[in-house]
Specification:
mainly alpha, 11 helices, globular, 4% strand, 235 residues, homotetramer
């Protein structure tokens, strides 16, 4: 029977702590720093703190038409509260929606070399996480911003290098693709020492405020959103 | 047919903005400031920024035994991914779990006076949101911290006053109860100009990192958590 | 501490029972009868069984454009499994989506008379649950089918009468509206002795197979459904 | 842009159909038959109908301590409605909770022989879906009941045979394990012509009434279930 609930994350009550830090002290921390602490078990250094907030703030929202926003707003329109609606938005963040960061961190932190990774993806005909953009061919300005900041802060390390090596190798083998934001984040998060298992978690944390804002906006619209549907009959 | 998806919150693509602010500039903002922006439609002033991060960081997690943590970890143990598990945790944040902030903001921002509010709650035999604590009788140190900070920052206004007036009136009518953290947050969020409809949203945003951390921790434990259950037969 | 999990619903293991009935015997029951048993704590009589399956089968699905179907399919398109997608569909079934059955059962089983109910709804300018249809003015053929069947089976009782009385009274006070399927179901479920608290539950049970079918269909379509969104700027 | 919502499952409105069958006729069908229709696109034959209801009724609930029940009830205790609570229960039905049916259907319907399957699972040290039981060593009475019924009804075919062959081969290679209910269901559902992608769907449909009943029971208990938690500090 496993009805034992043990944790190394936090405690409640008078002596409440977060990862060993008293909650009262956590209240003095920047929210992004508190997030870093609870995920990593240690406070960020100054440079890490600056990098981390850039990544979180940059992913806070991205328009109204994507699956997570549509899910959250549609569920709200069925007559539901904030918590249920935001949860439906987060549920949409599956492998095809934000999953590239986790997959990117996985390949970067694997034993495989950039050459082996490109070979494997080409063989299987799969899209390499972190490469390619619908609009940009040469450079993606947000990727540049993230990579430049990492460079300035002295945080760009072996995983950002590996991501660039994957990009190079793919250019040699097939075509030059721009490194997208997911690629930059995968590299830097790995260089910051985070595990791939938290890749989706960053995205969820960053996007939740956007989902709250969309749900709030939807509350002022009529209930029961209806899409035009068509019955095509039995095939 | 309402298959029109319009929003004043954000756009995607090359010219992506958040509430009118270019996404590239948002990447330079503190994450808590970006949250303030997306929820309120304007950037926080310096004092507001300090206040807001205190509130978010202070609610980041609170031990392992509460319903949201139990839900998230139990769903993970059924063999589920990060997004589904965290969503289950957020779903647990219903009226009885973090709902006091929204209810508190509602009564503070209503037309009713402190005297009328206390009278109404006493008549209906309901618990007044923001008053009472399991442990503290005199003062709750975290409430004090929040209220002192609001005072220092010049942000304590009419709604914090109204919350104190409710506390006073209740003491006159029945018994002195400590103002708890929900009461302090309800007052200050109202003084910062936020609507009650966002009360639950703050709590969801603040607690999501905790749910990510708990889900990650649960991933390393055996699948299929089982509680001791007992069949009591038909009554 | 409430970590005691007691139930009168079922047990597991060798001697597994459902509401006191051995699971092996439940395996011989019609699924609709097993549902009746687990919700009500007793097996349906023959007439009740016939009535109950009509109601469940009639609500199994209703096109592709409503909020629950859109949510389930959108979440699947984000790269999610069956369980997460179906759950998102069920989450959409809030007060504005299937909620009329529960509200209808509530007013029928309240102490208030038909006259008082109509008066109250007219005063508050609210829509009476169970009355009105977008298409039908005179009669709704599915309502007729349900009511006729209840009549034949000798199951139409005081609550169906009260629903008709509400319809009559509303016609006297304002305008004749057709009784819709929600109205018929509210009346008959009440006459079958079910509580209002289960009103939404019937609908969830009946619609889940539809959500499974839609999710399966969506699995064969491209990932990441995107709606056309428009950024309207800050107001 | 994929904001086209086409379906071959159902339509709404006056001429509503389910898989080409008029909704008014579907209202005359047994609920289990309507489920068969919506999932498979055709009505069950008489024998198929009997088999199908046995499988659904047999999985309707299984005690209070498993992850799906705990999730549903915990979310309800946070102050949530029926739909949100039941959804949380369904979310828990991930790979480790009911996933053996889907995995079983997958291996049975794969090109691989029983010998190859056993070899592969033994090599990878994985548990073969459908084999083994915590309590029963010789025979599992519910498995027997399902298999006997399939035999009587003339529905036991190549996939049930393949499941038995896997059991035999495993006995030769390692040890005799009882075929459990998941194994029997995997075989018969495959013999009924269902795809593995629906394996989890059957289980969700069958278990939803149980989750509704548990959520209803929890509504009468105090809010905010709390488990005993322990903070173990930082490792």
């Amino acid at each position: 029977m496993s009805n034992e609930w043990k944790t190394s994350i936090s405690s409640s009550g008078e002596d409440a702590v977060i990862r060993g830090e008293e909650l009262e002290n956590v209240m003095d921390m920047d929210f992004a720093d508190a997030i870093f602490l609870i995920l990593k078990g240690e406070k960020p250094k100054k440079a890490e703190s600056k990098m981390f907030k850039t990544i979180l703030s940059g992913a806070i929202d991205h328009g109204v038409g994507n699956p997570s926003t549509v899910s959250a707003r549609t569920v709200q329109s069925g007559g539901n509260d904030m918590n249920t609606s935001v949860a439906a938005g987060i549920m949409a963040l599956g492998d095809a929606h934000g999953g590239a960061i986790e997959e990117g961190m996985n390949i970067l932190q694997s034993e495989k070399s950039a050459i082996e990774i490109v070979e494997e993806y080409l063989e299987e005909g799969k899209k390499i996480p972190g490469l390619g953009h619908k609009v940009y061919d040469e450079t993606d300005p947000r990727t540049e911003k993230i990579l430049d900041r990492a460079e300035e802060l002295g945080l760009s390390g072996e995983y950002v290098e590996k991501m660039k090596a994957i990009q190079e190798r793919f250019a040699e083998e097939k075509v030059r693709l721009v490194m997208n934001v997911d690629g930059a984040i995968s590299g830097i998060m790995s260089d910051l020492g985070f595990e791939p298992e938290l890749g989706k978690g960053f995205f969820i944390i960053a996007r939740t405020p956007g989902l709250v804002a969309h749900t709030r906006e939807e509350m002022d619209l009529p209930d029961f959103r209806r899409e035009d549907g068509e019955y095509t009959g039995e095939e």
